[in-house]
């Protein structure tokens, strides 16, 4: 028995590629010119990925030890260039693959965001998506004239309004509003372009937008909420959901929960595709893969430091005052990615901070093997979960890792009939929904 | 008496040939992108992408989208400061400058906003503000905030030192802690200095009734609409362009400006004439290359790094041992 076909997405960002590998070439200092990312996205398209998702954050984290030193040493969250500008470039460098860019509802205004994503939706012929995040750092707030980030659930209240305003703006150009009629001399039909007059508790925007929303009337909506509020938001608005549940059982629970929430509000659950994050370790032989995997975990101090930057960035938690040889104290909490902290706490149960974090990898389940071995593990996982897709996370990204996925794992999946071999539709939404 | 050949419009020597910038306006996005690629091939120095009118897309994204198939031309986005906070503007222009290897420009447009963009915080916004003096002060503050961000990474901050395991030298990244009358930005920017140091800044001159306004006193390049204004604009800045609108572009007049900004050429016949007949007479056959600021003959020191915050607070992030040594 095999699973039904599923999809692959790619976790990307405008950050430094893997800069220590012997195969780093000139990329560590030249990637700012875009070549590394253009090559990457073209390879993903060749391999049949549905989309690349460009993650984002808006600060240089300096929480761990009260300094940016360890962050800038490893360059995980900074430097990071703007994903929306890069998305416009990547869209024009490709023909089929979807480009999903992250933007924070907390730091954009609905008008500006609606206009930016409408612009790329037009430029890309309907291949753009917006990853809706509410941000998680006071440091980012301080870059936008605020002292503190609004509290977690309030951010989702604001995001609901934000979404309503943005959808209103995207709808402000009715179907057929653009005439481009040389004879009558009318470019657009003014009766079909209507102000929105949105007035909420948090946002006001008059509208109309100054550009139509483009193919499908809106970009694809992507979201990664893990908390109950986040899940409700995702079930209501998202076409694509990203998640890091715990194992296949956790992924099934998460997907079923999202589908149930969607059905409750009258949405067809099949319109939502849930992508579980995995970080496959690939080798030419099974033994080769096992060795690579063991080497990955053996870099204990490196992994520990990287996890410290991760918690500093996404949760603004500084673990440096705590004894690394004791478990995470109960008093540790966050206004950032709340649900994520709870998941880690559970997973690390009992382990000390040092031990737990030096052996932590961002993944739903561990996958180690040859390209065909990984394909088999994905198949098995998907039979249990029921469908949708995987988000490949190989941070930091190297050209070698891209090749392992695009020229190893993806073709192995295609041979098993589990991955698309072409794009039947012009738009990302069309391709996402070309099968259930 | 035999008539001499008419003098070439301007000296043929490359260094003094006129600069040619082109304003790519409105309409279908794919046509705009095709036009930018064509103007790139002809050797135009930069295209200006307008931002304010009905049916204009976001120019920074058009620039990003065009950047690969137009690998030489400067890409200048017309951005109103009132639509987005300084952090976004500094970051998107920095990103564009990086992705284009130093071809980004910003045509500043601090006119009162037609958009209503407010939220529930008490941060200042330009929505509904029509007092030009207030807007001018706010714009000076906005530019200073952006400059503090562009200067928050020193040259040479990226080391990618594999042996030492260090990607960035943290001592070269400073927290500006910018606090102005209208805007405050803690910083640093989350990307390093871009190839030009910062984008080239352009402004139209004069703007409204405000004399010596912030935009014209901070711009690297001023755009005037009549020859009579050239010498006054020159008192403000090194590089001045004369705007030729519509049919005027069909026969560029002699000018003491450094070159032209061609705008309002949408009629296909006029477009063809200007691109294929007029431009080859103005531009060096292979076009100019390199950083946009060099092509626009701007002094390099105007783009030098300066400390983002002359009086850093003692608890600033970058106060590492290296700083204290
Ligand atoms: C795969 C994945 C990608 C994410 N990307 C971003 C991102 O780019 N920027 C960001 O601020 N948050 C990002 N998040 C965080 C989520 O938006 C969300 O805040 C988090 O999963 C916690 O859920 P909650 O907001 O419901 O508590 C991501 C989460 C996941 C699982």
What features would you describe in this structure?
The complex is a heterodimer of chains A (436) and B (325). In chain A, 42% of the residues lie in helices and 14% in strands. With 436 residues, chain A is of the alpha/beta class. Chain A has two domains: 7-171 and 209-287 and 362-432, Alpha-Beta Barrel (TIM Barrel), CATH 3.20.20.30; 293-358, no CATH class. In chain A, helix 7 (152-170) runs parallel beside helix 8. Helix content of chain B is 27%, strand content 17%. In chain B, helix 3 (86-99) packs across helix 4 (132-150). Chain B starts with 18 loop residues before the first strand and ends with a helix. Mean pLDDT of chain B is 87; it is low at 1-14 and 314-325. The interface between A and B is large, with 68 and 66 residues. The structure holds flavin mononucleotide. Residues 55-57, 102, 131, 133, 135-136, 224-227, 229-230, 242-244, 277, 337-340, 391 of chain A line the site of flavin mononucleotide (FMN).
List the keywords:
heterodimer, A: 436 residues, alpha/beta, TIM Barrel, eight-stranded parallel beta barrel, two-stranded antiparallel ribbon, 16 helices, 14% strand, B: 325 residues, 13 strands, globular, disordered N terminus, binds flavin mononucleotide
């Amino acid at each position: 028995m095999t699973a039904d076909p599923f999809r692959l997405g790619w976790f990307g960002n405008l950050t430094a590629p893997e800069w220590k590998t012997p195969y780093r070439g000139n990329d560590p200092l030249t990637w700012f010119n875009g070549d590394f990312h253009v090559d990457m996205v073209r390879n993903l398209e060749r391999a049949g990925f549905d989309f690349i998702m460009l993650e984002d954050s808006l600060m240089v984290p300096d929480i761990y030890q009260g300094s940016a030193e360890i962050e800038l040493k490893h360059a995980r969250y900074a430097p990071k260039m703007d994903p929306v500008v890069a998305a416009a470039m990547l869209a024009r460098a490709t023909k089929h693959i979807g480009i999903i860019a992250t933007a924070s509802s907390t730091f954009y205004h609905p008008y500006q965001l609606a206009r930016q994503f409408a612009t790329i939706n037009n430029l890309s012929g309907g291949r753009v998506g917006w990853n809706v995040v509410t941000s998680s750092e006071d440091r980012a707030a301080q870059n936008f004239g605020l002292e503190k980030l609004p509290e977690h659930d309030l951010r989702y209240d604001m995001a609901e309004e934000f979404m309503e305003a943005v959808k209103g703006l995207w709808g402000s150009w009715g179907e057929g509003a653009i005439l481009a009629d040389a004879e009558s001399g009318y470019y657009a039909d003014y009766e079909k372009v209507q102000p929105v007059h949105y007035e909420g508790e948090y946002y006001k925007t008059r509208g109309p937008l100054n550009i139509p929303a483009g193919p499908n009337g809106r970009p694809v909506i992507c979201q990664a909420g893990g908390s109950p509020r986040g899940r409700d938001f995702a079930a209501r608005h998202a076409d694509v959901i990203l998640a890091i549940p715990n194992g296949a059982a956790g992924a099934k629970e998460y997907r079923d929960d999202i589908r149930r929430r969607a059905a409750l509000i009258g949405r067809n659950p099949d319109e939502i595709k849930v992508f579980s994050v995995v970080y496959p370790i690939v080798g030419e032989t099974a033994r080769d893969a096992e060795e690579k995997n063991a080497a990955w975990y053996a870099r204990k101090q490196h992994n520990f430091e990287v996890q410290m930057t991760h918690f500093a960035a996404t949760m603004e938690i500084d673990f440096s005052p705590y004894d690394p040889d004791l478990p995470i104290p109960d008093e540790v909490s966050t206004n950032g990615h709340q649900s994520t902290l709870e998941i880690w706490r559970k997973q690390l149960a009992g382990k000390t901070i040092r031990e737990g974090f030096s052996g932590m990898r961002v993944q739903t389940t561990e996958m180690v093997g040859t390209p065909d071995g990984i394909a088999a593990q994905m198949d098995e996982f998907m039979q249990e979960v029921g469908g949708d897709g995987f988000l490949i996370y190989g941070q930091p990204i190297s050209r070698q890792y891209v090749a392992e996925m695009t020229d190893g794992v993806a073709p192995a999946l295609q041979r098993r009939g589990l991955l698309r071999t072409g794009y039947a539709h012009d738009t990302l939404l069309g391709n996402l929904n070309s099968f259930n | 008496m035999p008539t001499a050949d008419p003098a070439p419009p301007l000296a043929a020597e490359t260094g003094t040939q006129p600069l040619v910038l082109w304003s790519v306006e409105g309409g279908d996005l794919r046509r705009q992108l095709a036009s930018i690629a064509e103007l790139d091939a002809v050797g135009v120095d930069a295209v200006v992408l307008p931002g304010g009118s009905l049916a204009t897309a976001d120019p920074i994204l058009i620039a990003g989208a065009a950047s690969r198939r137009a690998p030489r031309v400067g890409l200048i986005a017309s951005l109103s400061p009132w639509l987005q906070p300084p952090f976004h503007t500094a970051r998107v222009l920095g990103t564009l400058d990086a992705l284009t290897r130093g071809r980004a420009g910003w045509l500043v447009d601090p006119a009162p906003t037609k958009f209503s963009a407010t939220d529930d915080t008490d941060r200042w916004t330009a929505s509904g503000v029509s007092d030009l003096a207030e807007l001018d002060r706010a714009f000076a503050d906005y530019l200073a905030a952006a400059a503090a961000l562009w200067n928050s990474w020193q040259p040479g901050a990226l080391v990618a030192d594999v042996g030492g395991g260090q990607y960035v030298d943290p001592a070269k990244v400073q927290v500006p802690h910018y606090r102005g009358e209208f805007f405050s930005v803690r910083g640093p920017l989350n990307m390093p200095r871009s190839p030009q140091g910062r984008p080239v800044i352009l402004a139209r001159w004069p703007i409204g009734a405000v004399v010596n306004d912030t935009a014209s006193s901070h711009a690297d390049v001023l755009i005037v609409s009549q020859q009579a204004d050239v010498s006054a604009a020159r008192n403000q800045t090194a590089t001045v362009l004369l705007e030729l609108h519509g049919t005027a572009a069909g026969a560029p007049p002699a000018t003491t400006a450094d070159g032209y900004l061609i705008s309002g050429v949408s009629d296909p016949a006029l477009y063809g004439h200007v691109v294929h007949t007029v431009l080859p007479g103005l531009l060096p056959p292979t076009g100019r290359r390199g950083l946009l600021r060099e092509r626009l003959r701007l002094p390099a020191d105007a783009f030098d790094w300066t400390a983002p915050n002359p009086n850093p607070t003692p608890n600033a992030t970058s106060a590492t041992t290296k700083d204290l040594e």
